């Protein structure tokens, strides 16, 4: 997902206007001036959107906002979340003025403007999480912007507990950056599933979106999936079963935006197995990592989709604490082009945490993937989803952690890596602590999560790659809910809080031509 860096773009544009162009510094003919590396600078603006959390009257939702401390940022800035359905302050003021002209109560217009201007959540300082709670089915989608010192690595999660009904359990999702394309393998139109794709438009103009569904035999016939209009500053939940009459257990959802941009997430609710949010898979690529399957998973289903016409043949490996192993009977997976393939791996974890690693058997064909994870037995079963994700990269963060309900899994699929894990100050008190870990090549480690000293409230976990190969990570939250061990899993992907800015020199000679 792309992070917005408008101020950097504006700066480059201004430089070009003064000098005619910005030139990369390069060696002259004598080689006396070596090329300078691009500078890494903090982004100055980040946008996120959060879907409406639940349609259940029993829902209890917590929003958590956090920005890690980053060197080189501006001294000021802000980060806040607003209801997607709210008018801007100016629009509300205009409406109030019209009401006054029409002879309506002037105070009503002012009250409406004040309500529209009030954020749902406002960050206070980098390095410390801020939380806000909401109850019931009326919580709207949210749109948010962070700038200045709050922009680099800004992370927001909504975590919802639903005590009963379809999808009961713990549902967590990271608020996402708006974009123009998303892939969701692992959705369903089966009779016992109620799946929605939530579309949130943060901009001032309408977005036009197409939704395509792919099952085991290819594209499903849809009736109203094309040209869906998402109004400005609004969220739109689309029930998948209204798009097609076909009932299939394993469906891949493709969201593409014709105009504008949206945030997209799938809410997957099961009549018996609870439910959770399904985040988008990483963009189609030949090799994928699905990190952090819990050690007590009782059932694991891998769902893979090949977007093009070419078939994909994949090696399936499980990175365990002791090394890479092959799931018995599922050494390879053949995925036909344009079709969704699923394989039930059963109780593959056998009491150890692990990560699935998919690589080409022969030639590389781009695919997307996710796993559905089930914990518990009988009426106490609960479900979560883990999509293929990006590597941690320089830094990644997971928020809303608790002292006893948090587990962090890290895998290094190709080379040994050293990481630094920082537990932030608590939302209501406590001091940050850090630890370093070494993750051996081909393994998954459930690391001992550091907890802030004197913790009060919840805290953020930030993972940084110190050295070695790429690492992938996920965080599992657990909570006891009426006898059910509820859980939700979020992957930690590079927060893209830094941007490379080429070294540029002014060339005023162009003004003399």
Key terms for this structure?
513 residues; mainly beta; five-stranded antiparallel beta sheet; 3 helices; 40 strands; 8% helix
Topology:
Layout: H1 6-19, E1 23-24, E2 39-42, E3 45-50, E4 60-66, E5 77-83, H2 89-101, H3 106-117, E6 121-122, E7 130-135, E8 142-148, E9 155-162, E10 169-174, E11 181-187, E12 193-201, E13 207-215, E14 218-219, E15 228-230, E16 234-239, E17 251-259, E18 263-270, E19 274-278, E20 288-293, E21 297-305, E22 312-320, E23 323-325, E24 332-335, E25 340-346, E26 354-360, E27 368-375, E28 382-387, E29 395-401, E30 406-412, E31 417-423, E32 429-431, E33 433-439, E34 443-447, E35 453-456, E36 459-468, E37 472-481, E38 484-492, E39 498-501, E40 504-505
Antiparallel strand pairs: 1-40, 2-39, 3-8, 4-7, 4-9, 5-6, 5-8, 9-10, 11-17, 12-16, 12-18, 13-14, 13-15, 13-17, 18-19, 20-26, 21-25, 21-27, 22-23, 22-24, 22-26, 27-28, 29-36, 30-34, 30-37, 31-33, 31-36, 32-35, 37-38
Helix pairs in contact: 2-3
What do these coordinates show?
The chain has 513 residues and is mostly beta strands. It has one domain (41-83, 119-500). Strands 11, 13, 14, 15 and 17 form a five-stranded antiparallel beta sheet that branches. The longest helix has 14 residues, at 6-19. Mean pLDDT is 88; it is low at 1-30 and 87-106.
